[in-house]
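dumping this here before i forget
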Amino acid sequence: MEPFFIIGAQRSGTTLLRLILNNHSKIAIPEEGTFWMPLFRAMRGRFNQPIDPRLLKVYVNYIKVNDQFKTWKMDAENVFDTLIQKGAITLPELMSQLYQTFASCDGKPFWGDKTPSFFRMVSELHHLFPKAKFIHVIRDGRDVYLSMKKIEKGRENVAVAALEWSYKINKARHQLNTLPSGVFHELKYESLVLSPQHEIKTICEFLNIEYEPAMLDFWKSSEKYIGTHHSALIFQPISHDSREKWRHQLSKKDNEIFELVAYKTLHKLEYPLISGKANSLRWIKAALKLVFGLPKRAFQIVYTMLVLQLAARFGKQTRAAGGKNTLA
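structure:
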């Protein structure tokens, strides 16, 4: 079995899928690996070339002290020492070594990754791991928005959320469609919660691994693989109630703006549209929200990227990958 990557817009059900697959006797998937992003950028075009030994020490220290990597909860000191002593190692070898160590610590032979933000790095990941497979999880953007604004402060702008969700979906699909046939599988969150056994059997077939009924009992061991800061739903059996929350929790005004901004993507994915034809006032409201909201969101994204880049370059600790943009 080859490595695989679970991608998708944040709050789309990627964590749920990770926990289900982690309950397989042969698969281990750690917490997110957003901290790899600056290394992808730094090594772009040189993925199969050995990392300079001096740079390798910096990268290793950056990973070792990174708050997000610490959530993997594994003792990697010996692995890091071995990597540094080896001196010449490529980025895919560095990644494979850490993921494989994580899997071995869990007593499993195969590894996967669940990092939603890798939606923009599909081409790079394919170059790093030519035989790897991808699972793209899609969820109705209005439910994504509702979940996101509960979890993260400053994400209340519905027009920006709609634009960002639409961009992520289309960016991932565009890159996935450039890959060889049979390399990726697309999954709707709504289908997963409605027919979990069928969808997981399909994924197991895609990954060429035997389906295990115990996978759907993931919630019994969720605490082993994830912190309590996540939604309480992942510590419970799958429920149909987690779909289409937008119908009764999203205001009419916000739904109208979301549908206006993300109309094409919602329509293409066959999600229901209930707002009808947009009038001039609705266009003005959406435009104003984008005018005031996009610069703020762009700053957040660029700032996080720069913090990660600086941390990787100087081997410093950062919480930026985990949502708190600090550098120490």
